[in-house]
Amino acid sequence: MATLSPDQRNYYYLLESERTGIHKPILAALYQIHSSPSLSDGQTGLGISPAKPDALLEGVPIWRGLDTKEAAIASLLPDDKVTAASEDESVLDVPLKQFVQQLSAKYRGYPKAREALVRMIQLWRQLRTREEAIASLQTNTSPQESLSVIDSALIAFVQRLRDSYQGRGSQRNALTEAFRLWRKLDSRAATLFALGIAPELLDRSTTDKTAMVNLATQLDRELLAFIRRLPGEYQERDYQRDALIRLVQLWHDLPTRNQAIASLMEDQKCLNQARYHPKEAPPKPLPSAIPKRPINWTPDNIQLFTSIVPDGNFTWAEATNGGMLMPPNQATVDAIVRIARLVQQARDRIGRPFMITSWSRSPSINSAVGGTSDSRHLIGDAIDFVCEGLTGNQLYWTLDPWWPGGLARFINFPNLCHIDARSYRARWLN
Question: Is 190 in contact with 138 (CB distance < 8 Å)?
């Protein structure tokens, strides 16, 4: 925002003021102090997350009807320790725990007490508004922090393993155990079998170094393939998260699970600073391994980023709008393949890439864009496209002599061209 002119800055403050319900001068002042002062741990101003003791301490004056934080501290501590609290807030830990332990017995549903609890929940869970705090209680009443907050750190850790794996026994054991938990297997033997290694071969090969090296190489290959798939397969399930936490624990040789979680919390803090310190950003993701191309396409074996026809330029991602409109039946699959073969010929003759604007459509989307009830897009064998540097007229007249199906131009969209694979020749101007 520092590069904005005063008028632009004022405009954005007005918009944000209306959205947040904060008076513009106050909002401007908050912005000014958001990036200052600089703190020793690299964080700044309002960017620092509220600490858990602050969440509890914030509720004390509301509960007890006090006006200031200082009054709340004085109500929690003996007179001779109040001054010490300003220098070391850890002296408040025990009194705050005692205060919280008494809340349940003393709660009577009075508005003041209710607001105190809502405020504590809001700060404890680091939520933006009172409404979000109330909404969060409908699905989770536990004070335990959700482990979903470390998901980004877990995935970043997994992505870094590709470069840090050195084939050591401890590393191999950590990955094998993570694989076991991820696949919900009940034994190491079952895990090895799932990785393509017969457990009995390890017993037979203990004296054969060459055989052991070969088995280790095979195991490493399977484990690294598993690691590469993890970021794409992770669905935030508890058992998946537990498998990755266990991986972190074993990889770093940490005595307890809680220590692994603590280390991930620190990693997450670093990731959260990536906006200010790019070196803290997670590694760049690698594309998923593409499975072998099937002989025939069906609704169940479609690979989004694979060309529809062998060595072609058009993928299933283009035909299905990035996977949002997957073909519901074999007839639609066959229609998409049919038009893909023809449009590849058209692209080869034009000599330029086709940028697809519409391919397969659902009935609701077809209706929303003004398509006719008998549109070939509903069948899957129609494409609307543009070519950089060419008009719809140029495309039309180049394709007209030979295109066997439907071919159309658009009055209101002069760069757009429509083709379809109907069984007869048709030409029109929309």
Answer: no
- pTM of this structure: 0.56
Burial class (CB in 10 A: 0-12, 13-18, 19+), 54: middle
* DSSP code per residue over 368-397: HTT--TT-HHHHT-EEEEE-TT--HHHHHH
Strand ranges in 241-354 using DSSP code E only, listed in sequence order = none
Domains parsed from the chain with CATH numbers: 6-137 (no CATH), 148-280 (no CATH), 316-429 (3.30.1380.10)
Query: Is there a contact between 219 and 195 (Cβ–Cβ < 8 Å)?
Result: yes
Give alpha helix (H) positions in 273-324.
316-319
- Residue 307 phi/psi, 5-degree rounding, is -65, 145
Q: For the segment 223-250, what is each residue's pLDDT rounded down to a tens digit?
A: 999 998 898 899 999 999 999 999 999 9
The two beta strands, 406-409 and 426-429, are parallel
Among 400, 406, 398, 399, which residue's Cα sits nearest to residue 374? 406
Task: Please state, in angstroms and rounded to a whole number, the distance separating the CA atoms of residues 53 and 100.
Answer: 11
Q: Which distant-in-sequence residues (6+ apart) come within 8 Å of 200 by Cβ? A: none
DSSP 147: G
The amino acid at 244: L
CA distance 388 to 353: 8
Residues 415, 390 contacting (CB under 8 angstroms):
yes
Q: What is the pLDDT of residue 47?
A: 39
What does the pLDDT read at residue 274? 72
- Rounded distance, CA 308 to CA 298, Å? 11
Apex CA 92: angle with CA 91 and CA 95, to 5°?
Answer: 115
Run of H or E residues at 224: helix 209-233
Q: Which strands make up the sheet holding 382-386, listed edge to edge? A: 355-358, 382-386, 417-420, 406-409, 426-429
Angle at 383 between CA 377 and CA 386, to 5 degrees: 145
What pLDDT was estimated at residue 206?
59
Helices 151-164 + 238-251 axis angle, to 10: 50
- Other Cβ atoms less than 10 A from the Cβ of 321: the count is 16
Q: Which two tokens stand for residue 324?
A: 């949002």
Which pairs with CB-CB distance under 8 Å and at least 24 residues apart come from 409-417?
415/386, 415/387, 415/390, 415/391, 416/357, 416/384, 416/385, 416/386, 416/392, 417/384, 417/385, 417/386, 417/387, 417/392
Distance CA 233, CA 202 (A): 30
Q: How far apart are CA 169 and CA 40, in angstroms?
A: 39
User: Do 27 and 16 touch, CB atoms closer than 8 A?
Assistant: yes
Q: Where are the alpha helices (DSSP H) in 294-329?
A: 316-319
CA 313/CA 173 separation, integer angstroms: 43
